[in-house]
Design a protein that fits this description.
65% of the residues lie in helices and 3% in strands. It is mainly alpha-helical and 412 residues long.
Length: 412
């Protein structure tokens, strides 16, 4: 059974199930198919869990952090009397994504990268086609009309980034350069967020593209690491969300940019979320339904994931999430001298952290595949020869491949 993790087609199918396009859940006409796919999803999650316990056994610090994070969300919701049953599919999906990436990297990184790149890249291309065919949106869901194959325009970025990263890492691991497929997936993703227009997604893609360009010209400064990202995000959070320092720059925001200081009413939402957090700083209010959120803070989410996490999961959930980011960042920093891959993955995490300052994505767990890749980045690096030199392939040709295990390369 473990040999299935070496099969690209199996990895591709697993990713199809775990990254099921939102359209199937949101269009009433596809309800039957959605129900069947959810049954398959539960089966896949169960199989992955059994495989992990039976074949891999040793639990990583990263996975412990993910489990604690998700369990705490459930406990906080139960404590606050919320409906925790709706959380289970999303939480199991998140854990399964982490498991399949970790097991895939430890079993056969090439199969994982090939299978994931195929499925996610295909989804990106189909979504782009729906954006071109239906500029105003394919269907309406929860009063929003700009919904496409992958769902609402703002949330699609959580799948775009895994598609981009797996494709680029695959290209660099095998050929030490961007392939046509990785370039197309990156370009199409950027074009999609511009055409469908999500300002936060455009900013995130721009930040990531700068990292990518720096890597391609071999200019990868050491100061661009998790410490820098944390410092920038903490400064922004306290400066804008808590202290409202933007009021000191009213002449720029109002007079020059033509925007209001409330960021179109978001400051009122932030105040309400902060008030909710102050009333329950340990557990938060738990996960709540959209209407309950509107009643409490005036919106379905706080328009800032960190604040959303604080008021829903309390201080402990907030700290566990940052601990996970630190684990990933440290792993990438330790491997910063091992080529372009760690730096590019680090760039994706930097973009991710910045985007969370203005959005609270319901499908944030899609990005967990990149966090898992970061935590186990040594397994994704190119193969090495006996002297510790990287081995790459030429298109259409295969270079000599050594038979040493990946644990050997980690020791190197």
């Amino acid at each position: 059974m473990k040999k299935l993790m070496n099969q690209r087609w199996f990895i591709a199918l697993v990713f199809m199930v775990l990254y099921k396009p939102a359209m199937f859940s949101q269009m009433p006409a596809l309800h039957t198919f959605d129900t069947i796919s959810n049954v398959f999803k539960v089966m896949v999650i169960a199989v992955l869990g059994v495989w992990f316990v039976y074949f891999y056994q040793k639990v990583s610090l990263f996975f412990v952090g993910i489990v604690f994070f998700e369990v705490w969300r459930v406990l906080a919701t139960i404590y606050c009397g919320g409906n925790y049953t709706s959380l289970f599919i999303a939480i199991l999906n998140a854990l399964a994504i982490c498991l399949v990436v970790e097991m895939g990297l430890k079993t056969d990184p090439d199969a994982l990268l090939d299978g994931a790149s195929f499925t996610l890249g295909l989804f990106v291309l189909i979504n782009f086609a729906t954006v071109l065919l239906f500029p105003q949106g394919m269907y309406e869901f929860n009063t929003f009309t700009q919904n496409y194959f992958l769902g609402y325009r703002n949330n699609s970025i959580m799948l775009f980034f895994p598609a981009i990263i797996f494709s680029i890492v695959r290209s660099l691991r095998k050929y030490n350069k961007l392939t046509l497929s990785s370039f197309v997936i990156t370009a199409v993703s950027f074009a999609t967020v511009i055409l469908a227009f999500s300002a936060t997604s455009v900013i995130g893609m721009t930040v990531f593209t700068l990292f990518l360009l720096l890597a391609l010209i071999n200019k990868m400064p050491n100061f661009l690491n998790i410490i820098t990202y944390l410092a920038i995000n903490i400064a922004y959070f306290f400066g804008v969300i808590i202290l409202r320092l933007q009021e000191a720059f009213a002449f720029i925001i109002v007079d020059m940019l033509g925007r209001d200081l409330t960021f179109t009413g978001r400051t009122k939402i932030w105040d309400s979320a902060l008030a909710a957090f102050a009333k329950s700083p340990v557990f938060g209010v738990g996960e709540i339904e959209n209407q309950a959120s509107r009643d409490l803070i005036g919106a379905t989410h706080a328009h800032n994931y960190y604040l959303d996490l604080l008021y829903k999961s309390g201080l402990l959930g907030f700290l566990i999430f940052f601990a996970i980011l630190i684990i990933c960042g440290v792993a990438l920093y330790r491997n910063r001298k091992n080529g372009k891959i760690p730096f590019i993955v680090s760039g994706a995490i930097c973009a991710f952290m910045i985007m969370l300052q203005s959005e609270a994505y319901y499908n944030i767990y899609y990005f967990f595949s990149i966090l898992t890749l970061a935590a186990f980045i040594p397994y994704a690096l190119p193969k090495k020869d006996e002297d510790g030199n990287f081995i790459f392939e030429e298109k259409g040709k295969h270079s000599l491949k050594k038979k040493h295990s990946y644990h050997y390369y980690l020791r190197k």
